[in-house]
Structure formats: structure tokens, C-alpha cells
Amino acid sequence: MKLKQATVYALHATMYMVRHITQLPLTAHAIAKAEGMPPGYLAKIFQRLVKANIVKSSANHKKGYVFARPPKEINLLELFEAVEDRPIFQGCFLDHGDCKSEPGKCAIGKCWMDAAKGVTGFLVETSLVVAAWEHPEVCQNS
Known about the structure:
Layout: H1 5-19, H2 28-35, H3 39-51, E1 55-57, E2 65-67, H4 76-84, H5 107-125, H6 128-134, H7 136-141
Antiparallel strand pairs: 1-2
Helix pairs in contact: 1-2, 1-3, 1-4, 1-6, 2-3
């Protein structure tokens, strides 16, 4: 499994919003500049986040974005799948031939599915607030 660069940008942009919540709304351009991202690309990513009800445009679109819901209620799996536009774990990465990810048919497939279940659980349990404040970049600067 590999996430798109857009998903990485969405995570960093929304963590930035959490860490600067008192300054919201923020424009995609301001966030992109602060985080070293291409502004036009981030603006397109924000369109996906609006569609997924993660962020919304402020009353005056030129003023930027705010969270559509409290960021402590937005989990990382939801964010990732909104940008990826698909479930991030769909069966085994070796899905080929007769196996079809059936339990007991393949040791590698079982290991993969167990790992995917664990990572999925972690992503569901991790909110944007936790991600923003426990991210290594923040912890190093504390």
C-alpha cells in the first residue's frame, strides 16, 4: 500500500490547521506556503476535503477554510480515504490466482490482512488533534 502525495499534503495541511485553529479561516495558499506545498495542488486537495465534509469554505471563500466538524471527531482513516477516493486497504496486496485473500490459504496474505486490520484500527482511533500534537515535528520542537 502506498498513499498518494495528495494524501500526505492533506494530512500536513489539516494538522497545520489544528495547530493554528485560533487563526482560522486559513487559505489553501497560506497553508501551502507555510508547509512548503504547491498552492494550486493543495487547493484541489481541499476540494476533496470539502466534499468529504472535513473542511468547509468560510462565509467569504476568499477568507479560507475552517473545519466542517470538530477536528477531534475527524480520524485519519476518514481523511486518507477521502483523498485517496477509495478504501486504503482492499484485500491482500498479493490478490492473485486461487487465493482471493481467503484465510488459511496463504501465510503472507494472513500476515498482510492482520497488519492491515491493525493499521486500520490505529487510523480510526487517531484524530486530527492527536496527529497534530503528537507528530514528531511538534514533539521535537517542544
